[in-house]
Amino acid sequence: MIQHTCEIQVRYAETDQMQFAHHSNYIIWFEHGRIQLLKNLGISYKDLEDGGYLMPVLEVHSRFIKYAVFDEILQLKTIMRDFPTAKQKFEYEIYNQKQELICTGCSLHSFINKGKKAIKPPKELREKLKPFFK
Question: Which entry of 5, 20, 47, 67 is 20 to 30 Å from 123 by CA?
Answer without folding.
Answer: 5
